[in-house]
Amino acid sequence: MADKKSIQLxxxxxxxxxxxxxxxxxxxxxxxxxxxxxPYALNSAVDALLKxxxxxxxxxxxxxxxxxxxxxKAHLFPNQKLLNQWRNNFAGIRYFDPxxxxxxxxxxxxxxxxxxxxxxxSSGQVKKIAPLDYKSTGSTAANVYDRFQLxxxxxxxxxxxxxxxxxxxxxxxxxxxxxxxxxIDRLPFRKEMVEIETNPSDIYEIFKDAVNVLKNxxxxxxxxxxxxxxxxxxxxxxHNQI
Length: 242
Prior knowledge:
This protein is α/β, with parallel strands linked by helices. It has one domain (about 5-240): Lambda Exonuclease, Chain A (Alpha-Beta Complex), CATH 3.90.320. The protein contains eight helices and eight strands, in the order βααααβαββββαββαα. The protein has helices at about 10-20, 20-30, 40-60, 65-70, 80-85, 145-160, 205-215, 225-240; strands spanning about 10, 75, 95, 100-105, 110-115, 130-135, 170-175, 190-195. The relative contact order is 0.18.
């Protein structure tokens, strides 16, 4: 059973909990993880290059072309030092709940800042922010999965818990490999920006339920459609024969 003071959960943790509480309990309490997916080294490289590119525009206080092309009336969050902290996988933007004695955190890719006159709710005079996440893909379309929604909802929740006002929106900057243009020592991308309404109201309950599951001495059942349960069920009889 997890030491309640050491519980630290991320959007990926919450997604795993929603997919299968049993796999989540094994992962966090016993360190028994699902088989990892194929390493996405290219995606990580693109992510690092995009951070450099966006930071170049941030330092010069210039709008990024992706924002202009999509008529998003925002600018890049100017506090580079704080953004670097929020981007750090070992720090991130964090919220410690004293009742649960657990921490929820996330590592954002970037943040947009909206002036009061251009925000979704212009009644206040405080600048508002929104999370921006980079997504590189070899798919032909900008597919928005449930885990992306959960990720942006969690970032919005964390920003508000850290005293920031948000526009209750999140942004996904898709960099999609353009296979129609061939490959001549370059990997061409086409770019799409997707705006998503965020709703952080359910995040605390998901966080609380996940923490409470970890405090139990035994794991809950697998989700009915958990593929890893099905794999294990098929593997055990074979394993007993060898």
